[in-house]
C-alpha cells in the first residue's frame, strides 16, 4: 500500500505543477483501488455477457430502455406510466430469464483457482492423490484402443466437484478401473454402452449416466451429442471428460467448457496426470502452496 501511496503522491505533485489549471477531485489510494476493482468487475461482466446467450437478451433490454428514453423526451405519459408500473416486475423477470446464465457464472467463479489458492474449504480431507498413475495409463490405453476400432465412448473423470447428481441417472458399478472393463462397457450392443461412465478415484462409479448438453452456440456444428455432453458437464463441474468418436475414432478432451479435439496419447496423459492433484491437509484454511502445471499448448478448434 505504501508503494501505491508514493505513486499517487508523485502523480499529485506532477498534476499540481503542470496541470493546476484543470479542476480535479481529491483522490486517495482507496479511491484508486476502488476504481480498479469496479473496472475489473465491469470488464468481466461484459465479457460474460458477450460469451453467453445473455448478450442477445441484453440487447433486447437495451432496445426497450432506448424506447422508454424516447418516450420520456417526447413526454409520452401513457408509455411512461406503464413503464413505471412494470419496472418492479421487470427486475424479477430479468432475474428469472438470466437464471441459467447467472448460475453458470457463479459456479465458474466458485471454481476459480485464485479462490482455491487462498481459501481451502475442504477441511478434513487427507493428503492423497485422487487416482494413481496406473489408472491414468489404463484410461489412456482404453481410449486409444477403442479409437482404433471406432467404438464410441464418453468418460468423465471426477475431480473436486462431486458428480452425484449425474451418477444417480445411471447404473452403479463401483468396480476397480481396468482397461478391459472400460472397453467392455462401451462395446456396441451391450446393456451399458449408451451414456457416460463416471470415474471416481481408481474406481468406475457408474455407467449409462446422462449428462447435460452444452448450449454454447460457438461449438462446431459437426459435434455430436457425446461431444456436447462432454462440454456440458465440464461447464458445470471441474471434471475432465474424454470422448472417443464413433465416426472417426479420434479422441477429444473437454475441460472448463472448452474442447480439445483429435488429441494424442501424450497430451491426454499429461492432462490426466496434472489433474491427479493433492487434496488439502486437514484443518488448513489458508494454503499458499505453489501449484505448478505443465500445460502443453495444442491447436484448438473453433469450438
Question: What does it look like?
Answer:
Helix content is 49%, strand content 12%. The protein is α+β, with helices and mostly antiparallel strands and 303 residues long.
Distance between the termini: 42 Å
The tally of helices reads 11
Q: Report the β-strand fraction as a percent range.
A: 5-15%
Low-confidence parts, pLDDT < 50 over ≥5 residues?
117-127, 278-303
- Biggest beta sheet attributes: 7 strands, mixed
Instruction: State the helical fraction.
Output: 40-55%
What is the mean predicted local confidence, pLDDT?
Answer: 78
Write the H/E string, N to C.
HHHHHHHEHEHEEHEEEH
Radius of gyration: 26 Å
Total E-strand runs: 7
Cross-sheet strand order for the largest sheet: 2-4-3-1-5-6-7
Shape: extended
> Which structural class fits the helix and strand makeup?
alpha+beta
Oligomer: single chain
Write the layout of secondary structure elements.
Blueprint: H1 2-18, H2 29-50, H3 54-73, H4 77-97, H5 99-110, H6 113-118, H7 133-148, E1 153-157, H8 164-167, E2 171-176, H9 179-185, E3 196-200, E4 203-209, H10 225-236, E5 240-244, E6 251-255, E7 258-260, H11 265-274
Parallel strand pairs: 1-3
Antiparallel strand pairs: 1-5, 2-4, 3-4, 5-6, 6-7
